[in-house]
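Annex B. Sample input.
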Amino acid sequence: MRVLFLNNYYYIRGGSERVFFGEMELMKKHGHEIAGFARRHPMDQPSEFSHLFPPDIATENVRISWEAFRTVNEMFFSRIARAGLDRLISQFRPDVAHVHNIYGRLTTSVLDLLSERKIPVVMTLHDHKLVCPTYRFMRNGSVCEDCGGGRYYMALKNRCHKESYAASAIVALESYYCDWFNKYKKNVRFFLSPSTFLKRKLVEFGWPANQIMVLPNFLDLTKFEPNYAPGGHFLYLGRLSEEKGVATLILSFLSLQNTEARLVIVGEGPLRAQLEALAADDHRIRFAGYLAGDALREVTREAVALIIPSECYENAPISVLEAMAYGKPVIGADIGGIPEMVRNGENGLLFRSGDFDSLKRVMETFLGFTPHGIDEMGRTARLSVENGNTADAHYRKLMDIYRDVI
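Annex B, continued. Sample output.
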């Protein structure tokens, strides 16, 4: 089978790219021919089709103006991306296309082309973009569903995107454009949701349930050697931004009376300086910055537990699966898809999202566990991934879906 994968980025930028590259590697491992298509970027991984990638576009400082008109037009409907993909299709002749994130960069122009070329499409959903212009369901640090049901003008009214009327107008208009011209529903056969929560939200806001299939994320467990021994620190792993709840985590940790407790914060983001100031030079907290490879593996394997303090509707964080694969329990906020992954008292503990006292109590409870209790919880965590998130199981389900749409 020849499978074409599409994503905005062709380098590891976040969890969605790890799924994107993981599925391409999985299909190649099973003998299928694969091709990837993305926007060009200096950090791109090698690809024989990179000469067909459309050039990168700068979207960080876009404002509505005559000078920005061409950039905004590219964010709505990229003719350059469409042209490059058309040439790739002629060379590769795919049997099926598997789309990941295309919002604002590759754009729905690629969906139109795939439909015209009669190539069946499935699309993995990594966030809530189909029902929320800013994809996060958040405003001013709290969950917000004002745009639900197609009320995208609320994103402009609330200045949801970058606290800018201009930037918010662009993402709101993009959502209206995709709805008015039915860009997704008519061009995508199945949407693949990594969590049941995301599927429920889409159905709640009018998307047909029979078009959305739940397909959990997966790991190649041969790459994860578990370490069940209780480590020496709690671990946060992720972006340092408002919706991730890191400030709540730091404040809760600072209130712990246990002087032996340690917290390692791995990641970068716009709030790093603010969060470091909040930690107030407490020697128990260490900001490790961005880590990858061996350094990331060791800081995870030597942790006592991963903490996911999110205050937004998380979908299905890859970091949770990876921590569990290493035999580490997870302390998670009871929001979004996290409770589907963390079973309270079995492979981790849950607390009320955004609740300072609730997180403090859960950390105190965890610190009171015996080494044997933490060991057992870590083994259950590993078993959770072995039972529900293996590469073989994911491959079988994915192939069933591909055959169905073909």
